[in-house]
């Protein structure tokens, strides 16, 4: 998670932004979207309607968690929710003008 913090803090400031900073911004936005989707899925899974049932085991809980993580990563990389684009656009407004046009 430190790569997200490092990317976000390196983008704010008076120094001219580089192409790599724009790529870091794009990657950080995708990572944030994946984290958000994971949290959303975890909250939805808290309502376990199969308490004590056939599919209620530690192994199934681990499998569901891994499945949710994979789905969140794929959704963020594909742009299915569009959060990463919105986040990137908002933060890109802080970049110097020559980087906004790219």
Note down, in words, how this protein is organized.
It is a single chain. This protein is an all-alpha fold and 102 residues long. The protein has one domain. The chain contains five helices and no strands. Helix 1 crosses helix 2 and helix 2 crosses helix 4. The longest helix has 27 residues. It is elongated and about 60 Å long. The N terminus is likely disordered.
Cα(first) to Cα(last) distance is 26 Å
Major β-sheet, in short?
Answer: none
- Count of separate structural domains: 1
Give the mean pLDDT. Answer: 78
Topology order in helix (H) and strand (E) letters: HHHHH
Label the overall shape. elongated
- Rg measurement, Å: 18 Å
Class by alpha and beta content: mainly alpha
List the uncertain runs: 1-14
How many DSSP-defined strands? 0
Q: Which strand-content bin applies to the residues?
A: under 5%
- Determine the fraction of residues in helical runs and give it as a percent range: over 70%
Total DSSP helices:
5
């Amino acid at each position: 998670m430190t790569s997200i913090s490092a990317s976000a803090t390196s983008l704010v400031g008076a120094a001219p932004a580089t192409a790599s900073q724009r790529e870091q911004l794009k990657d950080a936005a995708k990572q944030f979207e994946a984290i958000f989707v994971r949290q959303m899925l975890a909250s939805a899974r808290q309502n376990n309607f199969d308490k004590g049932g056939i599919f209620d085991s530690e192994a199934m809980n681990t499998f569901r968690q891994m499945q949710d993580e994979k789905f969140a990563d794929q959704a963020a990389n594909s742009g299915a929710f569009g959060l990463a684009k919105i986040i990137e656009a908002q933060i890109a407004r802080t970049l110097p003008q020559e980087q906004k046009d790219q």
